[in-house]
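Researcher: I need the complex structure. Ligand is zinc ion. Inputs:
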Amino acid sequence: MKREDVLSSNKIWETQTTSTMKCPYCKHDELKVTDSRNSSECNGIKRRRECLRCQRRFTTFETVDLSMQVHKRDGHYEDFQQSKLIKGLDAACRHTSISRDQILALASRVTQELMQRQAQVLSATAIGEIVMRHLKELDTIAYIRFACVYRRFKDVDELMEAIQKVRVQEEPLEEDSPQVLH
Ligand SMILES: [Zn+2]
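Model: Output:
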């Protein structure tokens, strides 16, 4: 399993591996995790860290690359990359009430489910179905957007039918809670 870490501090983005994770300010390599408050929700993707030398704090994002191949619709194979999954979810969740932390938590849950399957190859369609199942519980708009790409509706009627189905399910649950846009 390969890990890719993206350090985020004051809009500076940097990519490095876990084994050589260093403080972005002084390059010291002894760091401690200072905030585990969100880490359970994001399942370890996002961590607040503190440098043991300069004491500065920054947030790290760690994504997992499973040793699993994705069989794409065009027939090609590629390595599963969690960062790609997060990118896809970001696009689907734009202008919805879903927060960045919710996206990371979702990506983490999907990745865990994929790991449990212990498959060496999974079709992009199968992964899409897993994502949709989780997304459906979070946000209707994001679900429809993702579904349009991954399920490829046969025609407009089929798409409208899917939208109607979700609306009917959703209506009794509607609340007047304020929505925060991210
Ligand atoms: Zn430092």
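Model: Summary of the prediction. The longest helix spans residues 100-117.
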